[in-house]
Automatic annotation (TrEMBL):
Record's protein name: HTH lysR-type domain-containing protein
InterPro entries hit by this protein: HTH-type_LysR_regulators (IPR050950), LysR_HTH_N (IPR000847), LysR_subst-bd (IPR005119), WH-like_DNA-bd_sf (IPR036388), WH_DNA-bd_sf (IPR036390)
Protein family per UniProt: Belongs to the LysR transcriptional regulatory family.
GO terms for cellular component: cytosol
Residue stretches making up the HTH lysR-type domain: 1-24
Protein keywords: DNA-binding, Transcription, Transcription regulation
Database matches in Pfam families: LysR_substrate
Annotated GO MF terms: DNA binding; DNA-binding transcription factor activity
Amino acid sequence: MIKDLESTVGLRLFDRTTRQTRLAPAGRDFLPSARKLVEDFARAIEGLREFQGVERGVLRIAGSPIYAGTLVPELAAQFSELHPGIRVHVVDALTEQVAAKVASGDADLGIAPERAVPAEVVQAQLFRDDVQLVCRPDHPLAAQDAVQWVEALRHPYVSLSPDYAMTMRADLAHFSESLTLEPETYVTFITTALALVKAGKGITAQPAHAEPLAAAYGLVVRPLHGPRIQRRICLLTPREREASPAAHAFLQFLARRFPQAA
């Protein structure tokens, strides 16, 4: 097969001697594409097998860090109880990468905060998540049942990406131009933000679904008001690619779990 391919393209993919075989330069260039072809073929075969029935197959759910670490495993466990023959894989990704995972077929669907998505992906709201204060239990703000933003902004703030901070700034400015968010530190991962807060480097504000993660770091959460900020958490699905029976069953499950999104 390899020699036939070399003959077809007119290039040598392997350097062969009597003792060993090594990839030629053209072979090294072709290797990533070859691996992708094999993965796509395996996925296609797996997809055909899924169509034998909804109680078989594989479901890949992409999730942004907070939701891949909290909500998605919970949903996967509940779904698996209803459909034990379907293997569910959680594909964790940065928020900005979830839509790309769905578009490429690396995931059947995704759950993530609302973002701009490519034309190949459909985005629909599942629910809204309140943004809450996260701090150490010995922090002065932890003594309050609820915290006003004007108070929170007096303390060093640990933010996720600059884009995340920009969205938060816009929400605050819409309520009052006097509310100015100037993060002390920017990080990429929620776990890094929580670790810095635990180390006493400041406070942060994260969606309510981050509460179990915050608790794992020994942190507490408090409602934030003035304004109340919410994040739209969305379901991402492929626009053109037909859903497998497993994915279709999960979409029906989500419709029952989040009836307000239907």
